[in-house]
Amino acid sequence: MADKEKDFCCMPGGSGFKVEAILSVDERGQMVLPKDMRERANVRAGDKFALVSWEKEGKVCCLSLIKVEELAGLVKDVLEPLVEEIMK
User: Which domains does the chain possess?
Assistant: First the structure.
């Protein structure tokens, strides 16, 4: 793997990530998700997302959107093993 790829903060191990689209931000700070991606991700009007950021060297380098209904499961998957370890 090239050094540039190793330094990219959002690619731990490099698996599962791919560029789906290039988005532009308008003057109001809004972006449009392409229709095919909305359909594939089952994104509908009114859906809510958590915005997760990654920092590297003090700068935000990556942004990720997680559907709110998926967030609880992700947090549980991360925290549950930690709590179990503490309780041992």
Answer: 3-87 (2.10.260.10)
DSSP one-letter code for 58: T
- Judged against a pLDDT cut of 90, whether residue 76 lies above it is answered with no
Q: Are strands 59-67 and 49-56 parallel, antiparallel or unpaired?
A: antiparallel
60 DSSP β-pair partners:
55
C-alpha span between 16 and 20 (Å, rounded): 12
Global confidence as pTM: 0.62
Residue 7 makes CB contacts below 8 A (sequence gap 6+) with: 56
What is the amino acid identity at position 65? Answer: L
